[in-house]
Amino acid sequence: MSLTIIILAAGKGTRMCSDLPKVMHPVAGFPMVEYLLDVAHEMGTDDVRLVISNDISKHIEKAPLSKKYHYRPVIQKDLSGTANAVACAIAAAPLQDQVLILYADSPLIDAHVLQTMVTMRSNNSAMSVVNLGFHTETPHGYGRMITVDDYLIDVVEEKSATPAQKAINLCNSGIMLVDSNILKELLPRISNDNTAKEYYLTDIIKMANQAGYSCGYTIADEMEVMGVNSQHQLSEVNFIVQTRLRQKFMNEGVMMQDPHSVFLSKDTVIGRGAVIEPFVWIGTGVTIGSNCVIKAYSYIEGATIDADCTVGPFARIRPGTHMEEGSHIGNFVEVKNSQLASGVKASHLSYIGDAEIGQNSNIGAGTIFCNYDGAKKHRTKVGKQVFIGSNSAIVAPCTIADHALVAAGSVISKDIAEDEMAIARGRQSNLARKGMKSRKG
Question: Which residues are catalytic?
Answer without folding.
Answer: 348
